Amino acid sequence: MAAVPRTTDGDGTPVPQRLLAAATRLFAERGYDRTSVQEIVEAAGVTKGALYHYFGSKDDLLHEVYARVLRVQQERLDHFAGMDAPVDQRLRGAAADVVVTTIENLDDAMIFFRSMHHLSPEKNKQVRAERRRYHERFRALIEEGQKEGVFSTATPADLVVDYHFGSVHHLSTWYRPDGPLTPQQVADHLADLLLRALRP
């Protein structure tokens, strides 16, 4: 009978987290297609058996790199959307938060948008559905404000969503941690731009 892989290593870090950390670093440095499973397990200090115990394939690792960030962002968007506050405050909070959480996970975002086409058709479809759910919740806030007369209806809500997330998705191409702006400052500027664009 095959041995069950250890859940943690010597310092207590769970093996799945070690694998994800190693994969994220290598995918960011070398690219998804130029990183082998062997290199990932060596960097994580585990066996191939451990990788296949937690992740069925390298494809599954790539999906999880993105999915873990999206899960956090979805939870936080649900929190902002459900707050007892005026819709413009809730939208501004959500718009700024997605910028901060993207910058905090910049490697993950960069890897994903650079390598998404490597996902299997099934995984690609799953990711698109997860992103659609997020965007629909964000769009619902805009539509709520438009119905209340707080936001202008001159631009369709779908286009407003694309406008904001276009900025978010480009963060990995220009944002530098040692640059002049902190993550929160960038988030505040982009959220303010969005609210100004929606002003009646």
TrEMBL record:
Protein's UniProt keywords contain Nucleotidyltransferase: no
Keyword set, alphabetical order: DNA-binding, Repressor, Transcription, Transcription regulation
SUPFAM superfamilies hit by this protein: Homeodomain-like (SSF46689), Tetracyclin repressor-like, C-terminal domain (SSF48498)
Top-level taxon in the UniProt lineage: Bacteria
DNA-binding positions: 36-55
Domain HTH tetR-type: 13-73
Pfam families named in the record: TetR_C_24, TetR_N
MF (Gene Ontology): DNA-binding transcription factor activity; transcription cis-regulatory region binding
PANTHER family: HTH-TYPE TRANSCRIPTIONAL REGULATOR RUTR, HTH-TYPE TRANSCRIPTIONAL REPRESSOR KSTR2
Protein name: HTH tetR-type domain-containing protein
Species per Swiss-Prot/TrEMBL record: Streptomyces filipinensis
